[in-house]
């Protein structure tokens, strides 16, 4: 078996790691805590699960992660295998989320199935695996430190010797079981023998013989009595038959007498009936004569050519057809009459309707005519109003004839004048102000001049160059006064004009109102006049329509009268028909009466016929009865002659005797038969007992055979038990010898005969080391390093033995050593290297060694470096060339 690849995800200190492994020696190297052991544990975990690690499931999951996965690919016996386990932590609880083992034959799922199958495949459970193949860190000395008994168990288990002990125990149990069954059967056998003896002592066959003889005698006696009885029965029955025959004859005679009497009576009765029938026929003939007389009377009343039945019924049929015809005619006339009547009614109604409508039209025309008159009057009034308004307007217009403006411009005219007036007023005010100022300046100038100063600059006047300014002032004042006068005049004129213009504006407004009014009235008049023609036309039309409607009504009335007279005609026709029907009815009644007389006569003829037949039948019947009567009388006479009283008397005697004998013999027979039944019961009982005895003997024989078989089985199981014991002792002895030899070879190889001569291993796996001087030494007394090497030797020897001891496919797992050098100095480390190479040479396919010691590089075919990132705390694996690593290590050592 070989691990080929391991892949980890969140397993302990690993984030993601994937490592392929080859055959040969692989050294896994790294610093303390880098994750070396964890890598091996992962492989172990993959195979056996967390239980094998002495850890709980959650401890394998990287702290802080939710799930961990381990996958291991391995080859075994030529096949490829893959196992995958996934652990999930939820709510602080870890569970196995997936556990699958794929083998070339099948896929197993679930932790239990996978563990079981791996155990079967490797032929070892996880304990055996650590005892043999996997030397865990710190467990180097496990085997030596164990007590001999524990060691014996471990090694026996590994070599499967434990199984033999198990089989021996099973054989012992089976032997005890067989013994228990055998003893039980023996007891049963003794019991049966005793029963057989008791039964045999009873002389059953002699008893049976005696009983059979007794039975035969009894049977003979029963037979004799039975024959006698049968004879008596026969005699009795014969006599009884004679008596019975006699009795029958007597009864027959009696019944013949009765029959003769009855027949005679019946014949007489039938004769009387025949007479009654004859009477009835006479009565019926008389009735027929009466009916024919009645018919002759009726025929005389009816005017028929031929008075026979066929003519009568033909005539009836004709009359009925006619009647039918009349009924249909009446119906037709009635329908027509009622149709005419309703037509007349509806015509009358529509005439009335038309008259009403004519009246309504006429009335409407009258109303419209009076309305028209009123409207004409109103129009005349309006025209007068128009004339008045036109006169008013003319009057107002005349005002404008002398006015400076035409109608429609008064308002604008007033605005212009008002503006001019304002202007004039302002100009006047301005002139007045300027005049006042000029006057004041003149006054000042005059005062200055008076004071001898220049009126302009106030300087003293020498020559008066400025005096002329006074004149200028005066001139200006004059001008201003002139202008002021003309302005005042203009203003006054304008004030008058404005007043006139205002009047004109008022007139103009009045004129506009009047014109509006005029327009309205004219429009009204126009409208009214327009309507007038329409109204006149309408009145004419209404009157015409009324006349038309009246004419139409007249026509309807005439039509109604016609319909009424048609209806009357139809009603008359109905009356005629009814009359004829009444007549026909009378005739029919008569004819039917005649017809009935034919029927009645025929009925009576029929009855006469029937009665005559009855009479004939009765005559025949009586003839036949008379024949029978004479037969019976003959029979009676014959029977009378046959009677023999003496024979009857003898039969009575014989019967009496036979009956008496039978009465006596039957109880006797009964008694004998009961006796015989008892005897048969007794015989049956004895036979039963004999059968039981036979059966007991058979059972006894069978049981004897069973007991014999059990005896031999018992001795077989005893032998088996012994054989397993011996086998185990022998095998162990052989194993111990081989183991001792291999241990010595291995130990020799790595310890090289320095101070110890050999190791002894006894049957109980007790180990003793002998020194060169022959002194024995307990292995525990060895030094730490020696002990480690000694133990590794023992492990290797066991591994070797196991490998040799198992035939066929080598299930041997890789030899795994975790830190085997802990207790070793460098000299011993090189011995360890030798041991590893030795194991490899012996054919161990794959050896995995975990070590932080670089000295082991020399033994490696492959080197795997494990390191841990200081910041992420995650481990990684990497392969490295072992030779290069060795050179580096040597170089490092040189620099130190
Ligand atoms: N569940 C876990 N999550 C994270 N880290 C873990 C977990 N379990 C263990 N570790 C860490 O894994 C590291 C590796 O331990 P391991 O025993 O594999 O180291 P080693 O290389 O064999 O060391 P040494 O040489 O001391 O034997 C340890 O530092 C440990 O703290
Ligand atoms: Zn370790």
TrEMBL record:
**Cofactor binding note:** Binds 1 zinc ion per homodimer.
Q: Which InterPro entries match?
A: AAA_GajA/Old/RecF-like, DSB_repair_ATPase, P-loop_NTPase, Rad50_ATPase_archaeal, Zn_hook_RAD50
Q: Which GO terms describe its molecular function?
A: ATP binding; ATP hydrolysis activity; zinc ion binding
Q: Where does Zn(2+) bind?
A: 454, 457
Region Disordered, annotated ranges: 300-377, 453-472, 546-647, 874-896
Name the gene behind this protein: rad50
User: Where along the chain is ATP bound?
Assistant: 12, 32-38, 137
Q: Which domain of life is it from?
A: Archaea
GO annotation terms (biological process): double-strand break repair
| Keyword rRNA-binding in record | no
Assembly information from the UniProt record: Homodimer. Forms a heterotetramer composed of two Mre11 subunits and two Rad50 subunits.
Q: What does this protein do?
A: Part of the Rad50/Mre11 complex, which is involved in the early steps of DNA double-strand break (DSB) repair. Rad50 controls the balance between DNA end bridging and DNA resection via ATP-dependent structural rearrangements of the Rad50/Mre11 complex.
Question: Which residues lie in Basic and acidic residues bias regions?
Answer: 319-343, 354-365, 463-472, 567-638, 878-890
Q: What is known of its domains?
A: The two conserved Cys that bind zinc constitute the zinc-hook, which separates the large intramolecular coiled coil regions. The 2 Cys residues coordinate one molecule of zinc with the help of the 2 Cys residues of the zinc-hook of another Rad50 molecule, thereby forming a V-shaped homodimer.
Source species, please?
Halorientalis pallida
Listed A to Z, the keywords are: ATP-binding, Coiled coil, DNA damage, DNA repair, Hydrolase, Metal-binding, Nucleotide-binding, Zinc
List residues of the Zinc-hook domain.
Answer: 407-506
Q: Which residues form a coiled coil?
A: none
Composition bias (Acidic residues) maps to 300-311
Q: Does the keyword Glycoprotein apply?
A: no
Q: What is this protein called?
A: DNA double-strand break repair Rad50 ATPase
**Cofactor(s), names only, from the UniProt record:** Zn(2+)
